[in-house]
Design goal:
CATH class of the largest domain: Alpha Beta
Protein name: Glutamine ABC transporter, periplasmic glutamine-binding protein
Structural class: alpha/beta
Helix content: 25-40%
Number of strands: 15
GO biological process, one term: amino acid transport
Keywords: Signal, Transport
Number of domains: 2
Radius of gyration: 27 Å
InterPro entries: Bact_solute-bind_prot3, Solute-binding_3/MltF_N
Order of helices and strands: HEHEEEEHEHEHEEEHEHEHEEEHH
Family: Belongs to the bacterial solute-binding protein 3 family.
Largest sheet: 7 strands, mixed
Shape: globular
Length: 343
């Protein structure tokens, strides 16, 4: 045990011992290298992608064999028609309703999003904040309701957790590429449609897959608890579905050849393709996917406010500005979808 500082002589002796040991190990290594067969620079590849580890929570859904019946279109059940806009900020002690009053009292809007849907809601690593089309729309709701677009608290949700969070009032709204369906409209309220996407297919460059017919016998990735799962089963019942927790998981499994394709809304696929130039969207546009903002079914006053915000950003050019900032990869549009209101 050393009880005082090392001297220059001590350091010199220690360095000599280290050099001697290094030389000894080098000689031993040389002898062993001469006797052993050198390893391959690149390990041999065996097996196929099914042997790789998939993201936690992934489910493999085997081919259904028979295409399920198509669900009722949201236009047939009235799901696309929402409440007419009310005042931007409800006035008077009784008019806001309990849930809107809670938002005004806490002075911030709690918004359910994710951080893995590129172009819509994703974390920008350069500034460590959430960005995207849906994030910008949510901030406009906060501007109209609370007077400041910064008064937003974002809570990260998986696709499977969105509706429970709304029903339990853990979030005020969900802005998360949320497709309006008849089944979903039984659980939550929706705003008017603020964007229309179309179901398509994403593959790696050079893939033999050019459309839904080529998905037979292939593994197709989709996020769990989304309409994309049943859409894939309808358009190609002979496909195996790789159901993952989030859309960025689909990007990973496609890059690692754990799936042959991803199939969902072209808006989401464009965000995946923007992160990897070797990927491409193929095939014709399939089913239309109307996006709405999800709101607790009892929070009528907040539906008024959200629809008021959507009406304003359609009219004043804000919607177009957001589209031009984030979504030009989807191609030119004539403008935002026209709203449909319940009489």
């Amino acid at each position: 045990m050393l009880t005082g500082p090392r001297t220059e002589h001590d350091h010199g002796r220690r360095a000599s011992r280290v050099r001697a040991l290094v030389g000894m190990f080098a000689n031993v290594g040389a002898v062993l290298a001469g006797c052993a067969t050198p390893d391959r620079v690149t390990p041999a590849v065996t097996g196929d992608y099914t042997q790789l580890s998939l993201p936690d929570g992934t489910q493999i859904i085997p081919p259904s064999g028979t295409a399920p019946a198509a669900p009722a279109a949201p236009s047939t059940c009235g799901a696309l028609a929402s409440l007419r806009p009310g005042p931007s900020v409800p006035a008077g002690p009784a008019s806001p309703g309990r849930l809107v009053a809670d938002i005004l009292a806490r002075d911030r809007l709690i918004v359910g999003v994710d951080q893995s849907t590129n172009l819509f809601s994703f974390r920008d690593p350069s500034i460590d904040t959430l960005e995207g089309f849906d994030v910008d729309v949510a901030r406009e709701v906060a501007r109209d309701l609370l007077g400041d677009p910064a008064k937003v608290e974002f809570r990260l949700l998986t696709p499977a957790g969105r509706f429970d969070a709304l029903e339990k009032n853990q979030v005020d709204i969900v802005a998360q590429t949320l497709t309006i369906t008849c089944q979903r409209a039984e659980r939550v309220a929706f705003s008017t449609v603020y964007l229309e996407a179309h179901h398509r297919v994403l593959v790696a460059g050079g893939s033999e897959i050019s459309g839904p017919a080529d998905l037979a016998g292939k593994r197709v990735c989709a996020a769990a608890d989304t309409p994309s799962l049943t859409t894939i089963q309808r358009i190609q019942p002979q496909a195996t579905i790789v159901a993952v927790p989030d859309w960025d998981d689909c990007l990973m499994v496609l890059q690692q050849r754990q799936a042959d394709a991803v199939s969902t809304d072209d808006a989401i696929l464009a965000g995946l393709a923007a992160q990897d130039p070797t990927l491409q969207i193929v095939g014709p546009p399939l089913e239309t996917e109307p996006y709405g903002i999800g709101i607790n079914k009892t929070n009528t006053a907040l539906v008024w406010v959200v629809n008021g915000t959507l009406a304003r950003i359609r009219a004043d050019g804000t919607w177009t500005r957001f589209y031009d900032r984030w979504l030009t990869v989807l191609g030119p549009v004539t403008g935002p979808p026209a709203p449909t209101y319940r009489e």
